[in-house]
Structures are given as structure tokens and as C-alpha cells.
Amino acid sequence: MLRASLAQMRLHLRRLIAAGVAVLIATTFVTATLLSTDVMERTVHNAILAGHGDADVIVTGSPTKETLDDVRAVPGVAGADGRQMNGITLSTGTVSDHQAASAVPETPGLRVDVTRGQHPDSPGDVIVAEPVAERLGLEVGSSIDVIADRRGPDEGAERMANTVTVTGIFPDPGAAFDSSIPGVFAHPEDIDAWSASSDEGTYLNIGVVAGSETSPDELRESVASSVGDSGVQVRTAEEYAADVAASFTSDAQVLVAVLMGFGAIALFTAGMVISNTFAVVVAQRTRELALLRCVGATRRQIRRGILAEAGVLGVVTSVAGVGAGIGLTQILVQVLGRLADMSWIPDGINIAASAIALPLLLGTLVTLIAALWPARAATRIAPLAALRMPASLMAGQRTSTRRWVSSALLVAIGAGLLAVGVAASDAGSVGLGIGVGVLGGAVSFLGILLGTVVLVPLTVAVLGRAVRRFSGVPARMAVVNVLRHPGRTAATAASLLIGVTLVATVSVGVSSAQASALDELDQRYPVDVAVGYSLDQIRAGETDTAAFELSTGVTEAVRGVDGVTTAIPLRGARLEASSAESENPARADVSVQGVDPDAARDVARSDSGLEELRPGKVALSAVTASQLGLERGDRMRLGSDAAEVELEVVSTEFRTASVLVTDDDLADLVPDAPGNVLWLGLDATADPAEVIRDIEDAVSAAAGGTTAPAVAGAAAERAEFERVLDMVLAVMTGLLAVTVVIALVGVGNTLSLSVIERARESATLRALGLTRRQLRSMLVMEGALIAIAGAVLGILLGLAYGLVGALTAVGGTWSVTFSVPWGRVIAIVVVVVLAGMIASVLPGRRAATEPPVVALATE
């Protein structure tokens, strides 16, 4: 029987190719996912190590100078240095950049590799990371100003600046992964001069280099013994990099789980294509199988033969998929390494046994499981009845009452779970809500898949009414053909339904979450950009505030930046604030900004805190409100040497100033308050990150040196948030596209098998006058109808699941704004329908090219 099954596979290999392609795509995806995850982990690992030189052991947990002394005294230690970082501003006079700076280690083995130039060997020399050099246009030998704020424990702040020389450039560090890796290394004397505090305090970490005869593990044990129970953590550099990489990737398990989830979806869709393929192939071979049973083959042998075919197909295509996944990942790594030009990207992939065994096992199992029902169905009909029954009738399926009940029950249970998930999220249990919501979505969608045998034909019937009214004979015949086999049509459309539903759900869910988050950002950070001086460095009531006033040159330079549409000036002062609600209120020195509320509303993205601001009113930041014990509706006092006023609190959530009052109220308190801040509105079409860079450059050029005001705002954060979500959406859509491709393979496969099954029928139509073009048009319309049915149902489900997903994920934190990316939704429908029509081209061509006489003679 096995030989007969293999012979049948060879004979009908063309009919199984599409099913094999579906398995190949899915196993390629799973293999590439596993290998890419390993590449990502090694990339992060190498990047972190590159930022710590050739350290063998790293001590973390805020080690002190005493800890460093103890480490240096350990036998087997060749060198050890602590790392501190200070925030500085690098300025060329026209371009500036904020960076973290650290001292070049005294131990050569702890220094980062320099690709150009050399390490600093005297004060006034620095090395910078490649991105910093590119941003500021620096080369080895370039001069640049360093601006730093130095403040002692009992001293006022002092802004200082000096000019340094770039002596070297090192590769892009792994600072994105490890916050203890700086962008600038300088001579230790310069770092001391730039330090934000006269007290050196603790280190971020201590790097240790082992002697030639000491292994990293031995050194770790020795260092751990020397520091005792001081609260620090001692790890080898490899262990440290692995732990930081794990925290960066959430132990890499979340990413693996997400990607493998997409792989599971692809395999599930492939299984539906395989099951549909075997169902049609088995139906076409029913007479042949009946003859085998008549000559002695048992039902078990028939089933085993069909499963043997599926097993061989699964193994062969899974092996091909694993090979394709390995090749694809290797090419991707090579291309990425050349494009990114980063030394810490691995040269190649590590092929673990699990990356081969798992896709092979999954691909084979999915193929076997998908063939179980067709194998069982092949033996349900008595041999003599099968010999008399036309193959076209055998391909049909009937909808049972049990199926209807099961479908309705699953949808009801799933809907209930989705409601519970939303309620749990609203109650604050977001993790539980998401878990229950995912389960509810899976259960309800399974119920919908069971009901597709009715839903899809019903949708096609509705579409068919329009087709019959406005189309010719081929289109009408296409509607009849699609409705004639509801089971096969539903199975084909179901694979498309999965892909389209997932893409629509992700699009709507991410778009709604994005809109909700941006609305929240607008409420909390209503101003795009603020340029100015902070008053936190002066004491309340001090009158020498001339240094904090924005010059006319700075103001005009900012107004002239492309992308800046509006600039609203604010005046500021440092005043004493207290609550007017108690006899012994808490008092605090606060920064007070005065603004024209009407003008400010032209800049603000949200009126929160501004809509009620007028003389006699005050808006507070949440920190200031908490510090003074004030709530909305309370009254607070602001006092200066000139006067004291009582104001009503109208907001406690304003984020762009500690205390915000009207210009008139501030003038009563401090008549000569300096104009220290500009609120800026940006052009909606401009790139906020680029505009902010241009503003920083303009401010640096106009103010120069130590007088440059700070540039801050939520525009860049808002834009970065949008970019991250857009990237997530693009990646997830790309991953789900694998499912859509597999589904379209199923559409083409179904039409191909339908052409083979209906060869005599097509020949009869040709003999009655149907032209080749009309026959091809009929098959194209069949593919389009199936694709449209799957797309329409998928979009409707995606809208519902996307809304529920947004309510579950962010509804407990923010007010949800339902947003539908109609452009993307329409694009999904267009792409799916076009692809469904394209999938029917080859089957249509095959049906049209066979002469009617030959087809009629075929049994």
C-alpha cells in the first residue's frame, strides 16, 4: 500500500505542490525566527562588551572608592578602574550635542578600541563615538567646546566651558543597550573639572582585568570574596553582558514568543491549505480508492496511505524550509553587517540543533494533522457507492447542526472572555486583562472559523447579487461555481480570513493605541518645544536675574528656524509659595512663569491648564501641587519682596512649568521679571527631531559658549513614540504578510484543483460556445469573489478585535480614542483581491488551453 501511495504522489505531484509551498513558507519563517533571535542576542551581547574594553570582571551595584581599592588589592588583578559619567554639551559654535562623558581608564585593557587616532594622554584631549563625530562634523584633530554645569554641595551652580581637541574616534558603542557606556571619553582631570558634584560618591561600575595566569571565573570568585557583603554584584564580563542583554530583550523570551506566535499562525494557515488540498485530491481519487478497497485494501490501509503521502510531503518541504530559513538568515546577517558597519554584528549564524529540529517537527506534524480529516473522509463512503458517485459531488460538504451549535457556543464564550478582559484592565489588572482578552479572541475566532461554511457563502451570495446585475455570463457562472461547493469555498476563504483579520486587528489596535497615547501626551505636554533658562539655580527673591533673560538674538534666531510656526514669550521669577488653606502651611521656593493665556492657546496642543487660566488663577505641576498639599479649587499664596497674592488653583497637571500664572499677576509680584522662556509651535509636516536639532544649533550659534539656553519639549518624544509604533505596525504587518501569502497560495491551489476536477464541465461549456477569454474571466471572478469574501469578513472582525484590544491594553490607563487607518484597511482589501485574481491566472490559462475534445475524452 505504501508503494501505491508513493506512486500516486508521483503521478499527482502537481496537485500537492501548493500545499508543499505553504509548509515551506511556514517552516522557513519559523527557522529564520529562531536563528534571527540568536543573532540579535549575540549582537546586543557583543555591543555591551565593546563598551567595556577587554574587562574580565565587572563589579556593579554602586561600588565605592573603598571597593575599588579592595579590588585592586586582590591577587590576580592586572588592573581595575571605576566608571563615572557626567552630562556635558559639545558645541562647535553652530552645532551642539548633549552627551555623557567618562574618564579614560588608566588600565589599557579597559579602554574601548579606537578606529581612528589615539586615546587622550593629557588634559584637553577627548575621544568621541562615531555618531557624535558625524553629528558635529568632527575629525581627529578637531577642536570643540565643552560646556558643563558644576555645583558643589553648599555652592551655587557654575556653568563652565573649555575647548578640547579630538584625538580619536571609537565605533558606535552599545549605549542603546547599556546606559553605562558614554559617548565621550576624556582625561581624568577634565572629568573632575566637569563633574556636577565635588563629591565623587560612587561608581556606576568597576572594570577589572585579570592577570595572564588567572581565568575570569577565578578572578570573579576572588573579587567577590574581597568585597564581602558590601552589596555589590560581581560578574564576569560575559555574565554581565548576558544579563544586560537579557534585561534589554526581556530575557529574549518575549520576542521569541511573539515571533513564534506569528510562526504558529503561519503554520495554522498552512494546515488549512493542506487540509483543503488533500480533501479535494482525495475526493478526485475516490473512485480509485474505492477500486483499491474492492481488490482487498482495508480502510486502515487507505488511511495510512494518505497519511504516508502527507508525511513524505511534510518532511520534504520542511527540510527545504529549514534550508531556506538558514540561507535567508545568513544573507540577512551579511547584508546588515555591511549596511550598518558595526563591528559587534556577528559574521554569521549559529545553527543550533533546536533551530533545525523544531521546524522539521512542526512542519511534519502540521501536515499530518491537516491530512487526518481527509484520510478519514476517504473511507466513509462504501466502495460501490463511491464508484457510482461523481467526484464533483464528493467534494461538497454539508453543514451539520452540531457545527452550528459549536460555532455559536465558542463565539459566545469568546465574547464573554473579551468582556472580562476589558473589565479586568479597567480595574487595573492590565496583564490579566490582556491574557484573558487574547484567550477570548482565540476562542471566538475559532468559533467564527467553524461558521465560515455559512458566513462565507452568505457573503458571496450578497456579492453575487451585484455581480449578476452588472456583469455578463462568466461572472454569473463564477458565482454559481463558488456557491456550489460551500465547504471548499469556506475553507479557502478561511485561510485568507485569518491573515486579513490579524492584519486589520493589528492596524486598528495599534492606531487606536497610538491615537490614545498621543491624546494623553497632548494633555500632559501641551507645548511642542520650550527654549529658555531654568530658574532652579537661584533662590526665591533674588533680583540679579539678568543672566536668565533670553537675548533678542536668540529669540530672533529661534523664530527664523524652518519648521517653527509660533513663538510665545514667557517671563519668569523665583517666588515663595504656600497653601492658603491652612494656618501652618508647607512653604517652597518655586519657579513661576507668566504667560498670556490667549496667545499660549495658539501654541498648546491641549487647553488643559490653560482654558481657565486668567488673572487670579494659577496652574500647578503635579509635583508642586503635591509638595504644597494643594488640589484643584484650593487657594495658594505667592509672595515676593514687592507683594503677595492669593490665587485659585485651576489645574494640578500642567507639565511645562512648576507654577503658571498670567502676565498681569506676575507683573504685580515681580515687575521686572526677565523673559526667560519661549514656547514654540512646530509645523505639523516637519520632522520634530530635525527641527529641534536646528533649534539647538540656532540657539548655540546665537548665544554661544556658556550662555546657551536649554532646548526641551515633548515634540521629539511624541514623534519618537509615533515612529516606534509605526515601526511595530510595519514589522507586525510584514510578519502577518507571510500568513496572507500562504492563504493566497491556498486560493491558487483550490482553483487549480477545481480546474482539474471540472475539466469535462469546462470542455462542455467551451463546446457550447464559451470562449477561452470568458472561461479565464470566470475563474478570475471566482478567485476575486473568494478573496473579497475573506477580506470583507476579515476587515469587519479586525475592526471589532482592534477596538477591544485597544480597550484592554490601554483602556485602564488612558481614555481610548478609536482610530481606523482607512488607508491601510483599503490597501489590505485591494492587495488581497488583486492577489486572489492573480492566483487564478495560471489555473485559468490551463483550463483555456486544453482542447475541448481532449478534455471531454478524459475520464
Q: How would you summarize the topology of this molecule?
A:
Layout (H helix, E strand, L loop, with lengths): L1 H10 L1 H38 L6 E4 L4 H8 L4 E7 L2 E6 L4 E8 L12 E2 L7 E5 H7 L6 E9 L5 E14 L13 E3 L1 H7 L10 E6 L5 H12 L5 E4 H12 L4 H32 L1 H9 L4 H42 L12 H25 L5 H6 L2 H4 L6 H26 L3 H21 L1 H19 L2 H12 L1 H39 L4 E4 L19 H8 L4 E16 L7 E9 L1 H4 L16 E4 L1 H7 L6 E5 L4 E8 L7 E4 H7 L5 E8 L5 H16 L6 E3 L2 H43 L1 H9 L4 H39 L11 H18 L1 H9 L2 H6 L2
Parallel strand pairs: 4-9, 6-8, 14-18, 15-17
Antiparallel strand pairs: 1-10, 1-11, 2-10, 3-4, 3-7, 5-8, 6-9, 7-8, 12-19, 12-20, 13-14, 13-16, 13-19, 15-18, 16-17
Helix pairs in contact: 1-10, 2-7, 2-8, 2-10, 2-11, 2-24, 8-11, 8-18, 8-24, 10-11, 14-15, 14-26, 15-26, 16-17, 16-18, 16-26, 17-26, 18-24, 18-26, 18-27, 19-23, 24-26, 24-27, 24-28, 26-27, 26-28
Kindly describe this structure.
- With 859 residues, the chain is an alpha+beta fold.
- The protein has 5 domains: 1-49 and 251-395, no CATH class; 50-250, no CATH class; 406-450; 453-525 and 714-859, no CATH class; 527-713, no CATH class.
- It is built from 29 helices and 20 strands.
- The protein has a 6-stranded mixed β-barrel with strand order 3-4-9-6-8-7.
- Strand 3 (86-91) and strand 4 form a beta hairpin.
- The longest helix is centred in the C-terminal third of the chain and has 43 residues, at 715-757.
- It is found in: Cell membrane.
